[in-house]
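Mods, move this if it's the wrong board.
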Amino acid sequence: MRSRPPVKGRGVFTGTGIIIAGLAATLVALLIPMWSYADRSGTGFSVLKAGTVTTPYGPLSALDRDFVTKVRLAGLWELPAGQQAELKGTTQAVRTAGQHLVEGHTFLDARVRDVAAKLGLALPNEPNDQQKQWLATLNQAQGVDYDRQFANILRLAHGRVFSVVAQVRASTQNSLVRALADDANTTVLDHIKILEATGYVDFGALAQELAGDSAPPLVNSPAPPGPTTDPGQVVPLTPSPYSTAFSLPPAATGPPSTPVPAAS
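Not the wrong board. Structure tokens:
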């Protein structure tokens, strides 16, 4: 039997095909990172750029505006919750925690309204649905059950916002938002510690709740800077019967100046 003669040019075509396939694979390898990181929405870079506007205090991102909104929302429910704890708490530790909430969020609310006014941002005037549900739970609780519900609900809420404050403080390009994050960090940490000091925080349940959290979506951020009206100060449900027993941090105004040595 005769052997079939080789087809002329087959080796050339085969070699060319390998080269083309290699070039195509290289092109795909180059395009995949570009698609994965540069062009996909939801990446850190795209979130940073999303809705960023120019202000006299530096670029203001959607994350910055979301943070300002969250600070205002925190005061809208945590301040009355603290006022309630001053009256309903069955232990001095719970009542003291309530006092810290009232004083801390009175301070932060004044700060956030000042920042919003300078940036031209509108602020909410009532808590969101989740916060209203927490307040309703606390309204119904009594006695030791109230103490436990208060400590755990507020500790969970502060744990969630603590990571947001850190993210904003680390990434913001806006000097007003940066200073607000400094004050929020100090106040939130104080509240976390004083809530834990009640002795009612269930750290096991807290860890499971926080571990189960997915990345929270941005709240409905206010529009970019423009004419707004002052939303008004958050007012406690009733005047606090307790006097201030601790001092709050002053508003952040910038790094301390370095003294100039006297000329010899």
